[in-house]
Amino acid sequence: MKRKPKAYLVLPDKVCYNGWVFKLLKYLKPYWWQVLILLASVALQTWSTLQLPALMSEIVNKGIVTGDTADIWSTGGLMLVWVALSVVGAVLSSFFSSRVGTAVARDMRTDLYEKILSFSFAEIDKFSTASLITRTTNDVIQVQQTMVMILSMLLRAPMMAITAIFQAIATAPNMTWIIALAVVVVLALVILILAIVMPKFKIFQQLLDKITLLTRENLTGLRVIRAFNNEKLEKRKFEAANSEITGVYLFINKVMALTSPLIMFVFNGTTLLCIWVGISLMQEDISYLGDMMAFMQYAIQVIMSFLFLTVLFVILPRANVSASRINTILHTRPKVIWPKKTVGTPEKTSSVEFKKVSFAYAGAEVNALENISFKAVAGETVAFIGSTGSGKSTLVNLVPRLYDATAGTVLVDGLDVKAYEKDDLMRRLGYVPQRAVLFSGNVKSNITFGNLTATPSEIEQAAKISQAKEFIEKLEEQYNSHIAQGGTNVSGGQKQRLSIARAVAKNPEIYIFDDSFSALDLKTDAKLRRELKTITKNAVVLIVAQRVSTIKDADQIIVLDEGRVVGKGKHSELLETCAVYREIVQSQFSDQEYQAEVKAAKKEQKDA
């Protein structure tokens, strides 16, 4: 089956089965021909099954009562034909309902994945990673299972029930009140069960998010948990959440457990009522025996149809909750909107400029950045330094539009970043995040992640510049050596160097290093920066750093404090003019080294 893109399942937050079915039919549009075959097979199965009671009535009334053996054989043979057709219809309907349901789930997962990839950090923060994982896995499975049941039951059960009711009326009109009574009782039970369990399904999904969050948090923070010997604390937190979700699930199951016996009570009561009324009528006319038997089978088909619908209606609320959560993701409009084409013409000379830029995180009372202005042109290195939480990483994250500025303008090559088509902007940037991220694969695949066409010599050059070549060549398979998910089989410094190599291999116009040298020793740091200078002569380099030694040679250093620029200039200038910068330098240098730095700065200023 070829997938047609962007077919969304839309479910309302509240239970509304008519609207749900309508939108479901729209969602099934790419598979319309398979749905038509499914409808035809369901109709064949239903019609074939409902021929059997009438034929059985004919065998009793014409064959057994009159002793006509030939009629029994001929009618029995016709019944076998209808049974065979019913089996064919059942097999076809099961096959196509499973096929279409699976295809819908596949499309849904793909659409969810694509949508999540389009999210900015603002949307990721809003939903949480744990919730996005649950929605992409568990919620999709819930909807898929219900989809298969809908396609196999929701079509067959009403068709069977309606046709059986008409057949029952035609066969024994004076007994049809029995079916009406049974239907009313079944509907009352369904409504009662839905009213009880529907709110619990929503709570269950939220608790499932919580379990996923705790599991992910504990697994990723296992080293810290063990280092602080807090396994018991985390175990208690997990057990509390686990007990809570277990309690909700047990309540749901207890209510569900009542469904089957109650329906069976209605089913058996209907059968006994049919026999009691039928026997009373047979006292007047013995030929009513065949009609009574046929009516009983029609009544059974009606009750069974409602039993199937009951099972579906019990499952549907949970699927409705899951589909509503999926729908929320699919119809969330990302705050970062990319134009289809770059609007305007970027300048040929590379540059990054901030014009009175401010930024606030969603729900924050104060700005993380306030009125930031600076410009960096090709060949320049601009560094950002400041205390923890001063907004350094937030600032550089605005360049690749991981967030959008809430005020002011961020320009790349003289053009507002919001005017760029996504690929056009990203090909200009080489971004190394604060936390080095590696993907499962090998060394080569991680280095070429941003440039899939990189040649072996380019890969080796990138490794050399990032100071990764030495340790790579010591690996058994060198560039083909395996990298585990998250880079768990290499050290923090090695991950950082491979992340830098990935950016270098891309050969961008603008390099962004977000505290990307923190895991490197001073000697490696110095070598790496020296090598970088050889390839960044015509590029803009933005460096976020904590160590003064990493940025002291930058063309421009911007000092941040609580989201504001409190100093701007070279190392020597800032030592004289910026108190915050002096405090940072003093905290990292010995008194003797600090005095030497101040003396050198004064000399440089005098010479200038």
How would you describe the overall organization of this protein?
The chain is an alpha/beta fold. It folds into three domains: 17-330, ABC transporter type 1, transmembrane domain (ABC transporter transmembrane region fold); 351-428 and 508-607, Rossmann fold (3-Layer(aba) Sandwich), CATH 3.40.50.300; 436-492, no CATH class. It is 63% helix and 10% strand. It has helices spanning 17-27, 32-64, 69-118, 121-127, 129-154, 156-171, 176-220, 222-227, 231-282, 288-330, 392-397, 422-426, 443-447, 456-465, 469-473, 492-506, 522-533, 548-551, 571-577, 579-588, 591-607, and strands at 351-359, 369-377, 381-386, 407-412, 415-416, 429-432, 441-442, 482-483, 510-514, 540-544, 556-561, 564-569. The chain has a six-stranded mixed beta sheet. Helix 5 (129-154) runs antiparallel to helix 7 and helix 9 runs antiparallel to helix 10 (288-330).
In terms of topology, how is this protein built?
Elements: H1 17-27, H2 32-64, H3 69-118, H4 121-127, H5 129-154, H6 156-171, H7 176-220, H8 222-227, H9 231-282, H10 288-330, E1 351-359, E2 369-377, E3 381-386, H11 392-397, E4 407-412, E5 415-416, H12 422-426, E6 429-432, E7 441-442, H13 443-447, H14 456-465, H15 469-473, E8 482-483, H16 492-506, E9 510-514, H17 522-533, E10 540-544, H18 548-551, E11 556-561, E12 564-569, H19 571-577, H20 579-588, H21 591-607
Parallel strand pairs: 3-10, 3-11, 6-9, 9-10
Antiparallel strand pairs: 1-2, 1-4, 4-5, 7-8, 11-12
Helix pairs in contact: 2-3, 2-6, 2-10, 3-5, 5-7, 5-10, 6-10, 7-9, 7-10, 9-10, 14-16, 19-20, 19-21
